[in-house]
Amino acid sequence: xxxxxxxxxxxxxxxxxxxxxxxxxxxxxxxxxxxxxxxxxxxxxxxxxxxxxxxxxxxxxxxxxxxxxxxxxxxxxxxxxxxxxxxxxxxxxxxxxxxxxxxxxxxxxxxxxxxxxxxxxxxxxxxxxxxxxxxxxxxxxxxxxxxxx
Length: 149
Known about the structure:
CATH topology: UDP N-Acetylglucosamine Acyltransferase, domain 1
Oligomer: single chain
Helix content: under 10%
Number of helices: 0
């Protein structure tokens, strides 16, 4: 049984898959990534220069770049780490036990604390403390009997 496998893309960048890792169809694991034991990457996920901690999961339709993810973290569908500011790549850090709700954008540099929860549909650009809930919501506006002009 294979305990770990490393893909040597160049001497500078390696991709390592530890034991019991699951990778879904149409996913892209780019150089410089490490998927720790028991981690899962679902379908249509891209992972670039990132570490996915033990038993953590990115289930589907997400982009994670220049990110360190701790143990037992859940990344919801459609989550992206916004790591490029136009000049340089910035880092995202997600600590153990965090839960990132679907369709969330984490604008780096940013740190999500241990066991923190990020509400679905949020765009965050400030750190989140341990065991905290963070979310952003715009006020919903509804115009009754709306007609195009």
